[in-house]
Amino acid sequence: MTALSGHEPQIKISIPAAASRLLGALRRAGFEAYVVGGCVRDSLLGRTPGDWDICTSARPEQVRTVFSAYRQILTGEKHGTVAVIVGGTPYEITTYRVDGQYHDSRHPDAVQFVPQVQPDLARRDFTINAMAYAPGEGLIDLYGGRSDLHACLMRCVGDPEERFAEDALRILRAVRLAAQLDFALEEATERAALDMRQSIQNISAERIYTELDKLLAAPAAGKVLSRYGRILAGAVPEIEPCIGCTQPGRWHCYDVWQHTVAVELLDVAGMDDKNARILRWSVFLHDLAKPECRTVGPDGAAHFPGHNQAGSKMARSILLRLKAPTYLVESASALVAIHDGALPSDDAGILNMLNRYGAAFLQRLCRLKLADLAAHARNAGVMQREQQVRAFEGRMLEMVIGNE
User: Fold this and answer.
1) Which of 50, 85, 220, 349 could, after both became Cys, cross-link 71 (CB 3.0–4.6 A)?
2) Over the stretch 270-318, which tens digit does the pLDDT of each residue have?
3) Distance from C-alpha of 208 to C-alpha of 205, rounded to nearest angstrom
């Protein structure tokens, strides 16, 4: 291959045997082939890639011929992708391509296969995903992806408005990846994402849900939610009124939105994926109805009467709109409905709640309450409430164990 600007032969990446075998087979057949995208990004960050995708100069029918001895998945062949199954794992092999016009803000109307890797990398979303690698050649980094990795930046390849106009899902992907990697959006990318956030509504509800679900589970979710709430309001418009909605200083030190990002304070240790998901969404949704319930008393302090019940209805509406799983719709809306209610301290009251809700639900409620309180002002009243929650949970578990 002709030497490229951005070609770094000294970079070494360890590729799994199966992916290496596929690369080798394509190259022996006379084609170019590289691992590309997220696997290169994660390898350079010292993370373990979840998938190893390959790009190649071979056209789909040529890929099928090279790997005729392997089982193949051809559902993406129209767009240049043939998935080859090795040891039960699918490896996507995609022909170099450039995309045609996007009229649905999601998919190109057509794709054109090309013989060089450069235009294929140019069509990709972010610089950190636009790097390719092959053993013996090293890294191909035409858009400064490695530099952006070091700077912890999400930057679009080329003009961010063009990239987001092509595929509005990239706006959510930018924020979700920022949360997973603890990165920030580069200035022009952030500005375009904010300006074009309404185009997120062109994406299917299932896609929006999936990106938000991954975001909420990410290590830097709280930081990213806090910083990019206005962008995410393109996906969940109910966020917008929460930004800057003040709360009484006696209990609160944040506005409603900054308080809501307490998802980062949530303890899901020891919980399975299902229970952790219920809790993350419950924290995310628990106070979104506060702005519509806000009143101001004679003392000038804000109050939010009925925000539990209104919040439960809003949580249900949002999750149904996003086509979330039924268990999540029911469980999260039920938690939001009573998240700010008082807990009994007497055995009769605790037993009554156990009989009504069950131990698993009440354990989730306690963790939601503790995350909620952790995002309050740190004063004696708040700490007393935390002690009450812990005392309730402890006694409730004693009663459960005692009845086994």
Assistant:
1) 85
2) 889 999 999 999 999 998 998 887 888 777 677 677 788 999 999 999 9
3) 5
